[in-house]
Automatic annotation (TrEMBL):
Domain Response regulatory: 15-123
4-aspartylphosphate found at: D64
Protein name: CheY-like chemotaxis protein
UniProt superkingdom: Bacteria
Record keywords: Phosphoprotein
Organism: Conyzicola nivalis
């Protein structure tokens, strides 16, 4: 009997975490990212994202600024430290100048074209299909 070492699995799918308290926005964003070939996890609060997805290493986190409990500013700061390889995109109905500095902007209303452009420009392993 021959024992072989497990084959390394190369995961070239883009993993996206979306945090938004609007069910409609979660569904819309999830649809855009899934149709762009991404694996998507969603959370409706920052606390849920941390508890449920704390060990997930997303390539991209899309975070709404106005969340109940811990807001998007705090979650983005926490993820910057805890997940330094994760690209963070801020989404909100607020003016883009109110977004935290150093992150991508995805102002609402978001379109599929916006999502694909962001993936193209910020996630090198994403392959447009």
């Amino acid at each position: 009997m021959t024992i072989t070492a497990p084959t390394a699995v190369v995961d070239d799918r883009v993993h996206v975490l979306i945090v938004d308290d609007s069910e409609d926005q979660l569904l819309l964003l999830r649809t855009y990212f899934e149709r762009s070939g991404c694996d998507v996890e969603v959370a409706s609060t920052a606390e849920e994202a941390i508890a449920s997805h704390g060990y997930v290493n997303p390539d991209l986190a899309v975070i709404d600024l106005v969340l109940p409990g811990m807001d998007g500013w705090a979650l983005a700061s926490l993820m910057t430290v805890d997940k330094p390889d994760c690209v963070i995109a801020i989404t909100s109905v607020l003016d883009a100048e109110d977004y935290p500095a150093g992150h991508l902007s995805l102002p609402k209303p978001v379109t599929r074209a916006h999502v694909r452009q962001m993936l193209r420009e910020s996630i090198p392993k994403w392959v447009e299909g």
